[in-house]
Amino acid sequence: MTSKNILVTGGAGYIGSHTVKELLRRGYEPIIIDNLSTGYRKLVVGGEFIQADLRNPDAVRQIFSGHRINAVIHFAASCYVGESVEKPMMYYENNVLCGMNLLAAMLAHDVRCIIFSSSAAVYGNPIHVPIREEHPQNPINPYGQTKSLFEDILRSHERLYGMQFVSLRYFNAAGCDPEAEIGETHEPETHLIPLALDVAVGRTPNLRVFGTDYDTPDGTCIRDFIHVCDLADAHIRTLEYLMDGGASAVFNVGTGTGHSVREIIRAAERVTGRSIPAVNAPRRPGDPPSLVASAEKLKGAIGWTAQHSALDEILSTAWNWHKKLRGCAD
Length: 330
Ligand SMILES: NC(=O)c1ccc[n+]([C@@H]2O[C@H](COP(=O)([O-])OP(=O)(O)OC[C@H]3O[C@@H](n4cnc5c(N)ncnc54)[C@H](O)[C@@H]3O)[C@@H](O)[C@H]2O)c1
What we know:
Layout: E1 5-9, H1 14-25, E2 29-34, E3 48-51, H2 57-66, E4 71-74, H3 81-86, H4 88-108, E5 113-119, H5 142-161, E6 164-170, E7 172-174, H6 192-200, E8 207-210, E9 222-223, E10 225-227, H7 228-243, E11 249-253, E12 259-260, H8 261-272, E13 278-281, E14 290-291, H9 296-302, H10 311-325
Parallel strand pairs: 1-2, 1-4, 2-3, 4-5, 5-6, 6-11, 7-10, 8-13, 9-14
Antiparallel strand pairs: 9-12
Bound molecules: nicotinamide-adenine-dinucleotide (NAD).
Cofactor: NAD(+)
Pathway: Carbohydrate metabolism; galactose metabolism
Domain NAD-dependent epimerase/dehydratase: 6-254
């Protein structure tokens, strides 16, 4: 393999660390850049780790000068919707300006392949479900706006400079490494499954269910949960597609199947064998009733489908990691 050196920004985070582990398993040599603002050094299981901040263009350029980088997977970002509403400029800086520092260094060193972590948040409140990539983009918070804006910047870099990109719009990342060596650790945690598992281990007394009167079969929100190992696979396969001359593209990464909050709670109780008391809470502003991907485009382009995203596999891998994270015995 000649194109082995992959720069992974945000590789000490949840999705980045799982992708790094999979890159290593497939014989790539990842170089990880992370400022550890929300990531953890211990999640990086191999490759070269460089603690640096993408806000610093000189540091980014130096990394490209010191390494022969063949392609980039760009995970680094600020990712809390609520925080983005409170601190929009922080989100524009970290999610847009930092990406532009990266693109400038790539162009200066003739690196022209990038896989970008986008999000279902670019669609806003969907008009049609399942959501296809052509669905109008109408993000309803600064987080989604930064992802949509950076996609535009990638398109203009393709037009102006021949940059080749794949933007992967993920739905809800979930699950953990099947070996439980690494996993999901967000502080504060806002994701449904780790919050449910915190109740299962007794760290919190109950799980708040935000909105129980939606127009869905059980009244709770429906989301498309994609196993983090399926996401890692989608990154590496689209990277190979791009490096083999595939055209720039935007793809959803989801399963095409939605699960309600109540279904997740039931699955978590089944897998853990513990009770997870839920309390009803008001709807949160900006939570659409249902967000489910059409995953057909990625399947058509590279034959990718999710292999590990059955609910019980998501829950059991998350549970094995969560017990270790919280220091719990079986
Ligand atoms: N988790 C999800 O469900 C989900 C869904 C859609 C999109 N995404 C996107 O996927 C990507 C990864 O998300 P995650 O859940 O792994 O988040 P995460 O917070 O675990 O990972 C982000 C990583 O980027 C690093 N980072 C942030 N700013 C940086 C900077 N300026 N310089 C260097 N490193 C920096 C952090 O330290 C962290 O390790 C993000 O771009 C996010 O927007 C995540």
